[in-house]
Amino acid sequence: MLSEDVLTYIENLIPDRPPYVTKIEEYALMNSVPIMEKPGIEVLLLLLKMQQPKKIFEIGTAIGYSAIRMALALPETEIVTIELDEERYNQAKIHVKDMGLDHQIKLYLGDALLLSEKIKQHGEFDAFFIDATKAKYTKFFELYEPILSENGVIYTDNVLFKGTVARDRSLLKTRRQRTLVRKLDEYNKMLFTKEGYETTMIPVGDGIAVTRRIERVRGV
User: Could you tell me which residues come within 8 angstroms of residue 8 by beta carbon, excluding any fewer than 6 positions away?
Assistant: First the structure.
């Protein structure tokens, strides 16, 4: 992970965001809503601009920050996003509407593991962005893999989880933490060994995994 001095230096290089985007960042800080760190979201947006996906599926809307940033960066891209928490979902709706992006961003309220049939009605997606419950990352991947397009890319945030995936799990304080880190470690290892995919990991923000489909496995 990068030092605080380096992170501060990088953040100071990032151009100012639109005023309303800054307002959402301030709301997240004041209300303890986790959103992507500034260097992390900038890397994600650059990768997406290079990929130019027509449709993105996001698991974990929160208050709409990343969906809005993606929509602004890719004005021709359709974004479908799902959020489990009703309060955050309602706040995301407000932000999306205020930005005039409700024609581009489709929001769903509910558990991504239970609403797959609704999501699949949108057809194939060129990109997934997974930024939700870390212990369910593998289940999200397995459930939605069939609707990832040929050469589609899966972007997964928080895969380093503040560096805990690289530490001795016995040093973690609670059983819940140990279980979460174990499942996240299993997910990371699955990404790097998954047949038909290639993965790299970028140690920016809280860690972003970039996984590209290189061939369809028979039966998928």
Answer: none
In the DSSP assignment, the letter for residue 196 is T
**Feature table: binding site:** 36, 66, 83, 111-112, 131, 157-158
Which CATH class, in words, describes the domain spanning 4-213? alpha beta
**23-60: per-residue pLDDT in tens?**
999 999 999 999 998 889 999 999 999 999 999 999 99
What's this model's pTM, rounded to 2 decimal places? 0.92
Binding site per annotation, positions for Mg(2+) = 131, 157-158
* Stretch among 16-20, 59-63, 76-80, 120-124 having the lowest mean pLDDT: 16-20
Return d(Cα 3, Cα 13) in angstroms, integer.
16
Residue ranges per structural domain of the chain: 4-213
